[in-house]
């Protein structure tokens, strides 16, 4: 047994010495032999150490030990062996029956352990202090177990953790603080669980894990995604977001999101294109999401948006690559290579690889190209820019326009109210004057003397009290200011069948009516 044989020999020698001391068979005389008994017991317990009460590590039968690797896989273990060597770097405990991972699973601190494999154990409980003695852990495999949730501060002790495998469990609840403090986590696998909420806090700006480049929540129970927030993420994060095989509801926004990712050749959209499905509302059928724009919902075609700007503005173009820390080179719309930030040119490359264009002019419109290079990927991005041939309206102009419109609307409303409610009273205020004005109006507009019926006489209806007045203009009626001469009225008899009409002289006709019958 590696690291345990010397201690076993010491323990055997100690027990033999204590036994001979108690019986008086030692080679030297001891005055009070009874005092040696508790001393021997304490010495034996000290030599036993953590081996008491648990199975010890056996690198010949129970486990396989190779240098700093200890493999105890498929050994039907129900508890983790004790007395693990301090130099252990890789510990494989997969395919056993370890249902719980308690805080005291290792009594000694394993500073050199960087890989711990605990998959396929039927594990349903993990203590929040289970990783206190393995602070250098970088790779943790907890996949294919029976975990149902991730409690608060579950992995806070693992400050060096880079890869965490939690797929094929029964996880339905993830506390928002479960991964707090795991600042170096790069890959998180949560597929094949029962998660119903997309953990946006892991990738969103200001709350995300700074190094996380792969998040797999595929084959869960997520029905909707925060599409607008996902659009704002940088491409190196979107390239590693996997959420296929979820019961999504068909939506054109989701289609546009994935279609644009496919145009950008992001791995998450290209590698699993045929595994993105959604459910239509009517009829209730499951279809492939990438078919929404062609056969089902007639979603609009997707293309990369054009960047718009105005004369005199400053514009910054992002080279949004699928990987981080790539070497970037920009070529302007005039086919010139952009210089560094120290240059005096209008287009310069910033320290983060973005292109800044100062004092935009109309000739700056066009397509800008970003060439990104790394050890494993070469990528070319195109950004189309359109500069409007005028300056952008200021906020003060917009305010003045809105203010003027508001004042006009209020003034119009006040005038309408004045017209409706503040006009002079016509009936009950001044009945005498109103009556006089009414009579003058009648005399000014028509002649109200009795007239002979016209065509009604032909029909035998002479009893009707109807009068038709015709007002004819006269050549010498101008300059009378619309007043009629009442003394100049005369009646002209008409022929049979035409009825009578009252005719005024030239000075009495100044009305605007001409040959217009008026029934009174």
From TrEMBL:
The keyword Oxidoreductase does not apply. SUPFAM superfamilies: Immunoglobulin, L domain-like. It is a single-pass type I membrane protein. It is found in: Membrane. Belongs to the immunoglobulin superfamily. AMIGO family. Residues 486-506 have a biased composition (Basic and acidic residues). Residues 474-520 are annotated as: Disordered. It comes from Huso huso (Beluga). Residues 283-384 form the Ig-like domain. InterPro entries: AMIGO, Ig-like_dom, Ig-like_dom_sf, Ig-like_fold, Ig_sub, Ig_sub2, Leu-rich_rpt, Leu-rich_rpt_typical-subtyp. SMART domains: IG, IGc2, LRR_TYP, LRRNT. This is Amphoterin-induced protein 1. The keyword DNA-binding does not apply. Keywords: Cell adhesion, Disulfide bond, Glycoprotein, Immunoglobulin domain, Leucine-rich repeat, Membrane, Repeat, Signal, Transmembrane, Transmembrane helix. It comes from the Eukaryota.
